[in-house]
Amino acid sequence: MSWLPGRLRLDSAAEDVLEILAQALVDIHHFAPGRNRPRDYQSWAPPSKRVISPWVQRPTLWGQAFELLEQPAPAYTGTFLHRDFHLGNLLWSQGRISGVVDWVETSWGPADLDVAHAATYLAMLHGVEASAGFTDAYRRRADGCRDEEQFRYWNVMDIVGYLPDPVKVVQPWRDSGLDISDDLARSRLEQRLEYVLRAG
């Protein structure tokens, strides 16, 4: 990150930030790699992660999530994915994104998986409304519609990928000066799961 201009901007989920974030992801998904297509995506929610953690307040929700992931993945049109797109991998300068970093997980798969990952991160950082606002902003720029089955599946896959505990992403936020406790991030992750299972 020190090779590019700009700095992290984790403290805002204002509408203009979400709109810029959404447009950046749409642009990434429009990239056509041709014969250099990356590997297929990997799920970060394997069966070994599908265990109710001690911090969980609503185990029934997580049970529903695990059942959903037992089903075959929905059909999708493959897209170039960043695969780890979120505010923590973006640099900002003068109100614009100056760099997108951490491309090690680049892969080929459903665009909804990239959208889900950014939305989950936003939910833990700023709440469910921010994650929904980002998803809506992306959809307006992409195809303007949402398949509820695909939305639910790919978002659940991403959320479960944060088990057994999302606290690994929280300490860097505190190091950046944000006051977000482990329990708040956990609660917000569970709230996001509830929202997704109800299909927003």
Number of domains: 1
What is the CATH first-level class name?
A: Alpha Beta
- Residue runs with pLDDT of under 50 for 5 or more positions: none
* Order of SSEs: HHEEEEHHHHH
Strand fraction equals: 5-15%
The strand count comes to 4
Mean pLDDT score: 94
How is this structure best described in words?
The protein is mainly α. The chain has a single domain (15-40, 53-197), classed as Aminoglycoside 3'-phosphotransferase, Chain: A, domain 2. 46% of the residues lie in helices and 8% in strands. It is built from 7 helices and 4 strands. The chain has helices spanning 15-29, 59-69, 111-126, 128-141, 148-160, 170-175, 182-197, and strands at 79-81, 90-93, 96-100, 107-109. The strands form 2 sheets. It has a two-stranded antiparallel sheet with strand order 1-4. It has a two-stranded antiparallel sheet with strand order 2-3. A hairpin with a 2-residue loop joins strand 2 (90-93) and strand 3. The protein is globular, with a radius of gyration of 16 Å. 32% of the residues are buried.
What is the secondary structure topology, with strand pairs?
Blueprint: H1 15-29, H2 59-69, E1 79-81, E2 90-93, E3 96-100, E4 107-109, H3 111-126, H4 128-141, H5 148-160, H6 170-175, H7 182-197
Antiparallel strand pairs: 1-4, 2-3
Helix pairs in contact: 1-4, 2-5, 2-7, 3-4, 3-5, 3-7, 5-7
Summary, kept brief:
By secondary structure, this protein is mainly alpha-helical.
Q: Main traits of this protein?
A:
single chain; 200 residues; Aminoglycoside 3'-phosphotransferase, Chain: A, domain 2; 7 helices
